[in-house]
Amino acid sequence: MINKKKVVNYVKNKNAKLSNQKVDGFNIIFKDPFVEDIDYKNIFQHISGVLPEEYASNIDIIYVGEFDYFDERKINSLYLDGAIYVSNIQDNEEDLLDDIVHEIAHSVEKYYAEDIYADGKIEKSFLHKRDILERDLRHYGYDTTKYDFNEIEFNKELDSFLYEEVGYDKLNTFIQGLFISEYSATSLKEYFATGFEEYYIKDRVYLKDISPYIYDKLASLEEKLEGEKNEIYI
Which residues have a Cβ under 8 Å from the Cβ of 162 and sit 6 or more positions away? Predict the structure, then answer.
C-alpha cells in the first residue's frame, strides 16, 4: 500500500524544485513530473468550476508521480486518507480529469456515506445488475460458480475473472444497459464513482437512464449542501 509519509519525504528530498503547488484550492505535490505536456492547472480549475466546493475541500493533498502500487493493481489513481495519488503518465488532459474526479468521488463516498447508502437503493440496484450479468455470462458458457457476484467490495479473484478471463472487450457487450463501464461492475464503490464521473463531467442524461438511483442521490446531496450553505448566510 502507498505510504503517504514516505511520499512526502521523497518529494522534499528529491524534487524540491517541484515540491508544492496550489491551484484553485488544490494542494499538489509532484513526486515526478507529467510525462506528456499536460495543462494540469486548467484541469484543476475546471474541476473547481463543476464540483460543489465542499467536495474538493475534503481533499488534503494530491500527489503526482510513479507509484509501484499502480502497476500492481493496474490502476492510474487512488484515494487514501484524504489524499489523491495520480499517475504522471497520462495520455491527455481528459484522462487526468477522469482520474481526479473519480478519486474525489471516493472521498465523497466516505464523507457522505450515510446520505448515499443508508436507504440501500444504490446497493440493491448494483446487486440486481450483478445478478443479471452473472446469468448472462453463464448463458454464454462462462463458469461463474467460483466467484461471489453478491460481494459488494472489490474482490481480486472476481476482478481477475472479469478482466482476464472474460476480457473487458467482451465484458463491454454484457454490461450494455446495466453498467456505465466495465470497471463500474467490479465493486459498489466503483459503481458509485463511475456514476459520479458521469454526473459531473460526462452525460447526466445517460446516468439518469442507466443508474437513476445514483443520479437522484447526487442531485439530492447537492441540494442538501446548498441548503446548508444558505442557512449559514441567513
Answer: 168, 171, 182, 185, 186
pLDDT tens, residue by residue, 136-164: 999 999 999 999 999 999 999 999 999 99
* 51-57 mean pLDDT: 93
Burial class (CB within 10 angstroms; exposed 0-12, middle 13-18, buried 19+) of 176:
exposed
Q: Extract the C-alpha cell encoding 153.
A: 467490495
Task: Provide the residue ranges of all domains of the chain, joining segments of one domain with +.
Answer: 4-111, 115-233
* pTM summary value: 0.91
